[in-house]
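Inputs:
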Amino acid sequence: MKKWFAVIGDPIEHSKSPAMHNAWFEEMSIDATYIPIHVSSEQLESAVAGLKTLGASGWNVTIPHKTAIIPYLDELDELAQKMGAVNTVVRTTNGKLKGFNTDGVGFVRSLEEAVGSSHKDKPVLLVGAGGAARGIAFAMQQQGYNDLTITNRTVANAQAIVDEMGIGRAISLKEAEETLAEFSIIVQMTSAGLATGNFSMPFSLNRLEKGAIVADIVYNPLMTPFLQAAEEKGATIVTGLGMFVHQGAISFEHWLGNYPNTNSMIAQLKAQLGGN
Ligand code: ATR
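Outputs:
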C-alpha cells in the first residue's frame, strides 16, 4: 500500500519539505507521498490521533508544535528528550509513535560537509539561545564539539543551556563582539529581524578572524547580513540550506531506512533561492 507522510505546523504553506520529500520519493521510486497539513495549537491533540488512525507512516513537526507534541507521543529518542523538542515522528513497527529531533544533527552534517570534521576541538561561538539554538548546542556536544561558548541578548538563557549541557560558558553579545577573534567557528542562530524581514546583526563582526568558519541557520534568504559581513571579512561561510536538507534527509532515513541524495537537492533549492 502507498505510504504517506506529512508536515504539521501553523503556518505551513511556505514549507519546502513536501517538495523535497516528494522529489526524493520520485527519484528513488518509492511509492509514497508527503503532504503539508495546517494544524493549529488547539487541534494538535486531535490531529495526532487522526494521523495515527489514518495510517501516516511518519511526519515532521514544525513551529509551533515541536515541544507541545511531546505528551502525545509514546517514546522519545535521547537527543529529542534532552532538547525537549521533536521535529520528526516515526510510527514504529509495533504501532508506537516515537519522536526524534534531526535539526541539530542536520546542522552538524551540513557544517562537516562544508568544512570537514577536523574542527571538533576548536573554540565554537554559538549565537542565540532559543529553541533552534538549544537543539544545535546539544547536537554539537553529542557529536564531540567540546569547546562551546554561547552568547545571547539575554545571557541567562544562554547560561541555562550551558548548565544543562554541563560544559561551556555563557557570555554577553558585547563580550562576544570584543573577543570574536578567539573563535574558529561561529554559528548565527538568533531570529533577529526574521519576522519583520529586516534582518539585523546581533553584533558586529569587525574582529572576526580571516580564517574563521561562519554559519547561519536561516536559509531564506541564503545570504543573511551576518554571512555577508563574514564573507567580506574573508571567512568561510556555511548557509542554512544544508541544515534544512540534512534534517529532512535524516527524517527520511528514520522513516525508510536509507539516506536520500542531499547534494542534488541542495543544488536545486539553491537555484530556487537565487544562489549560484
Ligand atoms: P527559535 O525557535 O528560532 O530559536 P526563539 O526560541 O524565539 O526562536 O529564539 C530566538 C533567539 O533569537 C533568542 O536567542 C533571542 O534572544 P533572547 O533570548 O534574548 O530573546 C534571539 N533574538 C531575537 N531577536 C533578537 C535581536 N533583535 N537581537 C539579538 N537577538 C535576538
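Remarks. Residues 104-239 form a domain with the Rossmann fold fold (CATH 3.40.50.720). The longest helix spans residues 241-256.
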